[in-house]
Amino acid sequence: MATEEERGGIEEYGGVKEDGEFVRRHLEGLEREHVEVRSNAGDGKGKGVFARSIIEQGYVAFEDEPVISMQHSASKEASWACDRCMKRLGSLGDRDAFLGTAGGRVSGSSSSSRVGSGSAVVRCRGGCSECYCCTSCETVAWRHYHHLLCCGPLAGGDREGDDPGRHYMREFNDHADSTNDIFRLAARFYAMIVASLLKDKGEGSSKTGSGAGSDSAESSAASFLDAIRCGWKAPWWSQVALPHDVEDEDEFRSQLKELAGDSFALLRAALKSRIGNVSEREEGSLFSLDVYGSLVGMFELNNLEIFLHNGELEGTGFYPLHSMMNHSCEPNVSMFYEADEEEGEEGDYSPCSKVYAYALRDIEEGEEITCSYLDAEQLELETEERQDLLRDYGFRCTCSSCT
Ligand SMILES: [Zn+2]
Ligand SMILES: [Zn+2]
Ligand SMILES: [Zn+2]
């Protein structure tokens, strides 16, 4: 058993403890002009989003930006987009030409050039094949997570032993792509937490001497997790609904845990090789399979699927306000992506993956805002079939068409 002090680090934020003051502040942070989050939506539903004023049919109830998002691995064969904001970069032919000419020689600095229609493309400074729409997206991605996750130039530009982290990251990516690519998103978020903890630790100790960094490290990691805290779930392997054809529940759950464990072991090896020397105690608090499993579970249950650029780009993202909305088989809002992605001033960060919740009918002041977790086809199914699809979310729908 670890003592209170030994646990420290991100372990502390991995639990589901919710202190009243924290939740109140957090929910206030999610308020928008027309909607607010309430901690008790009634009917045992937990949190919910409510209208603060009348919202007329066709109007936007609220907009939401992802805390973290990614393009699905398989979709990279259909669409070339900025790895951070998902802006379209060009055709696949443009991409091959760009990576071909910029390939191999990039090391230690990012390169930028114009492609196709004339938009600038910036390549990852680590030399992997990730590309960005501008230097700002490249820099933010690199600083916040990608420096820990970059797998470097593809075969040919790599010398064995240069960076063992590359080897582990490639294995990690291959494993994710052959099992569940949501592991990649969990890794991105995990890297953000680790980078933030280490950054604050470094800044804290250089400013105020050794031992003083832990407070700010904790507050920084906490603020990171603030945005997603309300969506925090039990580890993936323990919350997934048992498929009907599975008889041995323990066996099923331990297989899922093993899968997550294999994924996490590769990620851990990659991160460890890149974060330099940390004490055994720090290592213990940085690397927790339960935290990783909770992130996977949270993304599996709360993420919104992203479809952009005429459906060519498919991705997934965690949207804080959207994740607070309860389901109804007769929803009063529907989520849409920004139609005009050219909007916004140069330098303004505006992800293409921003969503708008449009009112499907007039919504009264104080009425709960609901969306459907099921797609249009699924909503046509019989009540019991719908309930069955909703099992993974851990509730029985009590909307007016279900009761
Ligand atoms: Zn971008
Ligand atoms: Zn890279
Ligand atoms: Zn229902």
From TrEMBL:
PANTHER family for the chain: HISTONE-LYSINE N-METHYLTRANSFERASE ATXR2 (PTHR47436), SET DOMAIN-CONTAINING PROTEIN (PTHR47436:SF1)
One annotated GO biological process: methylation
SUPFAM superfamilies, A to Z: SET domain
PROSITE patterns, sorted: SET (PS50280)
GO molecular function: methyltransferase activity
One Pfam family of this chain: SET
Domain of life: Eukaryota
Keyword Transferase tagged: yes
Residue ranges of domain SET in the record: 33-374
Keyword entries, A-Z: Methyltransferase, Transferase
CDD domains: SET_SMYD (cd20071)
Residue spans crossing the bilayer: none
Protein name in the entry: Histone methyltransferase
